[in-house]
Write a structure and sequence with these properties.
two-stranded antiparallel sheet, single chain, alpha/beta, seven-stranded mixed β-sheet
Length: 195
């Protein structure tokens, strides 16, 4: 199973990098519209909530403009940060003026002096996904480890491309299903959750 997952990650990342930057930009704008609608429908928006986004890498949907918008509307916005290998991530407060530093894999993150917060809603970028709400990530297990220990667990929205859908990711015991999978075509998977 490890070999299959590694091969699928490589294939899916290669395929998404074949999309032009303009195609990804346009699809990210549409995906952001779906995210706004989801937040409004199920949470009445994000005002007053703690919302964790992500900094896009390797052709992931770019929702940074949405993070700026949510911050401007009164949400507390955070980004996940890896502080130690094989440990859960922490979430540091982010604003549009935060002076970012390089974190693991050279991903920009808020600096260590930024406040740590506990998200109520978090976005998890997807390499691949299935209709049962399972996420195929980059293989480090950070999101699964983090979701397993957060109490209360945040409402977690997987963000990815429609083309990354798999029949199954062959979930393993450590894999945690997400609450919603959202792509540029809308909601793809949603767990039975009391709203």
């Amino acid at each position: 199973m490890t070999r299959w997952r590694r091969a699928e990650r490589t294939r899916l990342q290669s395929e998404r990098m074949l999309q032009t930057a303009e195609t990804r930009r346009a699809a990210s704008i549409v995906l952001a519209d779906h995210l706004r609608a989801l937040l409004n429908q199920h949470f009445g928006g994000a005002v007053g909530r703690v919302f964790s986004g992500y900094w896009p890498i390797k052709g992931e949907p770019n929702l940074r403009p949405t993070m700026v918008e949510l911050h401007g509307s009164g949400a507390t916005v955070a980004l996940p940060v890896v502080e130690a290998k094989a440990a859960p991530m922490v979430f540091r407060r982010w604003t549009p003026t935060t002076q970012m530093v390089r974190g693991d894999w050279n991903i920009p993150v808020p600096p260590p002096e930024s406040d740590q917060v506990m998200p109520e809603i978090t976005l998890a970028p997807l390499v691949g996904w299935d209709c049962s709400g399972y996420r195929l990530g980059y293989g480090g297990g950070y999101f699964d480890r983090t979701l397993a220990v957060l109490d209360p667990r945040p409402f977690t929205i997987g963000i990815g491309w429609q083309s990354a859908q798999l029949a199954t990711i062959h979930p393993q015991p450590h894999d945690i299903p997400l609450d919603v999978i959202l792509t540029e075509t809308g909601v793809q998977a949603i767990r039975e959750i009391p709203w």
